[in-house]
Automatic annotation (TrEMBL):
InterPro entries: DUF8199 (IPR058512), HYC_CC_PP (IPR058060)
Pfam families the record matches: DUF8199
Domain of life: Bacteria
Identification of the protein by name: Uncharacterized protein
């Protein structure tokens, strides 16, 4: 589960970096106020009205200006990707590193040590030393 989540976030961050550095251009072709074509990264195709108006001759010069419009907008990507050095000096970095490792060490599960003598039987007593020496607890 942890590896799957790690892979998902890695791919998401890579796609986010890719999408933020690419410049996006969207072009629209409008004919009489209606969107006829939308294109991403390429030129939008016209609706053919210009070819039809050119057949009419000089009378259509006024109509040409108001009939079709091309709109384009570009979202510029980020061009200056650079690593920024930390503003912290060495002693501050050392303190932060030691503090985070000590703090994260509090949450590590301590594994119980295996007791090795649990599986061995006790030694066989030949003589009871307490009775032999007459040592009794009162």
């Amino acid at each position: 589960m942890k590896n799957l989540l790690h892979s998902f976030f890695s791919i998401t961050m890579a796609l986010l970096l890719l999408l933020s550095t690419v410049s996006w251009t969207v072009e629209k072709h409008l004919c009489m106020g209606r969107v006829m074509d939308v294109a991403l990264f390429t030129h939008a195709e016209d609706c053919g009205m210009k070819a039809g108006l050119s057949l009419l001759g000089d009378d259509a010069a006024e109509v040409k200006k108001t009939c079709c419009d091309d709109e384009a907008f570009t979202l510029q990507g980020q061009d200056d990707l650079s690593n920024h050095k930390s503003d912290l000096d060495y002693s501050q970095q050392l303190f932060l590193y030691s503090f985070t490792t000590a703090y994260l060490g509090l949450f590590v599960d301590s594994a119980e040590k295996e007791i090795l003598h649990n599986f061995y039987p006790p030694p066989i007593l030949i003589k009871d030393l307490n009775i032999l020496n007459q040592v009794f607890l009162i």
